[in-house]
Amino acid sequence: MNRPVYIGAEYLCTPLGRGAKENFAQLLLGHSAVRPVANAGFNQETLHLGAFAQPCSFDELIGDAFANLDIDPELLTSPKTRVMLSTTKGDLTNGIEGAMQRAMESVQRHSRSFHPPLVFSNACITGVSVLNKAAEYIAAGLCEHVIVVGCDVLSPFVIYGFQSLFAIADGRCKPYDAHRSGINLGEACGAIVLSASRSIFAEPPLIHAGGSVTNDANHISGPSRTGEGLHRSITQILLKKNINLNKASYTCAHGTATRFNDDMESVAFTRSKLSEIPVNSLKAYFGHTLGAAGVIETAMAMQSLRQDIIPATLGYETPGTAEPLNVIRENLATQLEFVLKTASGFGGGNASLLLTRS
């Protein structure tokens, strides 16, 4: 079965604010959730994190997302609806053991879904890959609607892990910049609804026009220097849909501000003939929110398509990637037809999805 997949009703709860429109407005103002947090590191040093001013639990964020979804509440409990959770660590409130089980129980309790939630954890590509999986379920007729929620919360376990990789920036991150020094970790929750029916959306939806997930099996934590996996993920969509992205398009990239990731993306985009297409990274606004990243960044990409404006890449000043890219330095008002969202993660995973107007 081949039918259109509509996507909309995007909602975010981040340190920048609540709601997709509010968060997007903060981006356009150049505001960042990344701030110095004292006694955060392994040796109690100050780290720059995209953290809530007041501690917020995984369960609280999940509850907020489902309470504010702009859809008919009866849709959640319908047998025709599935709920999918994107998270890399789950609910670590009471430690590592049982973290995913607690996360699933939280989603079940707040969504009251007819079916048990499906929980996905595939490193930093989880959000984009789950949105693609949701579209596949709908296109195949396995369900009519899918609510995708992405959530991860900061914890010592997460922070110390990235510190052990020497991947943490010494200030606010600078994606694609020659002087980038690493990532800022962040926390957030986002939700997006996909459906076979246009009529369930209060605001006109967009279309999930295609998605692809690949794995280059390059390294447990390092991206392929040739960009092979990301290149294949992008071209699989464009070739299948016979789409040539042009100036009415933009790429909302992963852009972690690590040396290897940003260089790899520049190579992959060049190989995919996208180096002249406007590209941005949102990591300096939210930090890297892990399992939530693909969901909240897709929600912001959706706002770009709705409002015909591309937010600047905060922190980018001096070009510094292996291949040149058209990185957006200032907010760019432009008529958009397509938005490509990409993600890359540990284990060689790469994911892409394409959005267009309905």
What does this structure look like?
- This protein is an alpha/beta fold and 358 residues long.
- It is 29% helix and 22% strand.
- It contains ten helices and 15 strands.
- The chain has helices spanning 20-28, 58-67, 73-76, 99-111, 126-139, 156-164, 228-241, 259-271, 283-286, 293-307; strands at 6-14, 17-18, 34-37, 47-50, 81-86, 118-120, 145-152, 188-195, 206-215, 249-252, 279-280, 309-310, 332-333, 338-344, 349-357.
- The strands form three sheets. Strands 1, 2, 5, 6, 7, 8, 9, 10, 11, 14 and 15 form an eleven-stranded mixed β-sheet that branches. Strands 3-4 form a two-stranded antiparallel sheet.
- Helix 2 runs parallel beside helix 4 (99-111).
- It starts with 5 loop residues before the first strand and ends with a strand.
- The relative contact order is 0.20.
